[in-house]
Specification:
single chain, 285 residues, alpha/beta, Rossmann fold, six-stranded parallel beta sheet, two-stranded parallel sheet, 16% strand, globular, binds NADP nicotinamide-adenine-dinucleotide phosphate
Length: 285
């Protein structure tokens, strides 16, 4: 199998390319092949003849998306459609990464793939449109919804917390938004399971197992980082509500995802987020 992985310079893209190279022939690209440019995408496909496209390219600045509406829409909605259309012309499929932010549910039930689409911010709306346009442009699509990513080569919540915990006397973290923290390496392994044996197209959820609030996530980060001596002292991590945290984009209060479908169809391993966080932090030591 030969894969074309887009977004190779991103947080997920870097870990996915590194893992994929161990077993597969891959072509990797970033901005130099603009996924919103049909000619560039078609030329790349003709030149490299991949068996499947894995799209990790995206616009991921959730707060900026509220004002950069055109760019957000172009990359997150139109981009997947261009990839889908071009891939369909040569009879290949697209594995595309989407987000829990296309949903906004209610506790305590994790959301399945057929939960009603309900984005509450501009990024989620554009990603939801991207899912729809891709699905309509190419029957061979695997849309993987994921959430709360942390990866060694990206700006993410774990690194932000560690930086704050090293420099502040105390921090406040939102305790009424719940989701699934997810390590990019676990997601990369799940993506490859689908790409190497693409069957049963459709939408699939993949995150790590276990649900947390951002506050619980931060408390666990501090606990593990102290154990691993990445931090020298504990600071108070104060719980606050979403209404006390000012941000441009609203976030869902509940977007935990049910992973039954991907487990049953692709026999994917879903490690607990605390265990994956431990492996991730071990890379930092
Ligand atoms: N991060 C999360 O917590 C999270 C949560 C849920 C879902 N996701 C989804 O997971 C996927 C990977 O996220 P990530 O955090 O790894 O993203 P990321 O670090 O922002 O990487 C995205 C990559 O795509 C590139 N890119 C942007 N526009 C492009 C275009 N028009 N053509 C080609 N490449 C382009 C970016 O280049 P530049 O750096 O130059 O912009 C960047 O290298 C995305 O689909 C995202 O929506 C992420």
């Amino acid at each position: 199998m030969t894969f074309w992985i887009t977004g190779k310079g991103g947080m997920l893209g870097q870990d996915l390319c590194a893992l994929a190279k161990q077993d597969f022939k891959i072509f990797e690209s970033d901005r130099e092949v603009d996924i919103t440019n049909e000619n560039s995408v078609m030329d790349y496909i003709h030149a490299n003849k991949p068996d499947i496209i894995i799209n990790c390219a995206a616009y991921t600045a959730v707060d900026n998306a509220e004002t950069q509406t055109e760019l957000n829409h172009k990359i997150n909605a139109f981009g997947p459609e261009v990839l889908g259309k071009c891939a369909a012309k040569v009879g290949i499929g697209v594995v595309h990464i989407s987000t829990d932010y296309v949903l906004s549910g209610k506790a305590p039930t994790p959301l399945k793939e057929d939960a009603p689409i309900n984005p509450i911010n501009a990024y989620g709306s554009a990603k939801a449109k991207g899912e729809y346009l891709l699905a309509n442009s190419n029957p061979l699509h695997w849309i993987i919804r994921t959430a709360w990513l942390f990866g060694i080569k990206g700006k993410n919540f774990v690194n932000s917390m560690l930086n704050l915990m090293r420099t502040k006397e105390q921090i406040s973290v939102v305790n009424d938004q719940f989701g699934n923290p997810t390590w990019t390496c676990d997601l990369a392994a799940a993506v490859l399971k689908i790409a190497e044996n693409p069957k049963n197209p459709g939408i699939y959820n993949f995150t790590n197992e276990g649900i947390a609030s951002w506050h619980e996530f931060a408390v666990e980060i501090q606990k593990q980082a102290l154990e691993k001596k990445l931090l020298t002292k504990a600071i108070p991590v104060l719980p606050i509500s979403s209404s006390e945290w000012k941000s441009a984009a609203k976030r869902p209060l509940w977007s935990a995802l049910d992973k039954t479908k991907i487990k049953e169809n692709f026999n994917v391993q879903v490690p607990l987020w605390q265990n994956s966080l431990s492996k991730y932090l071990a890379l930092e030591t």
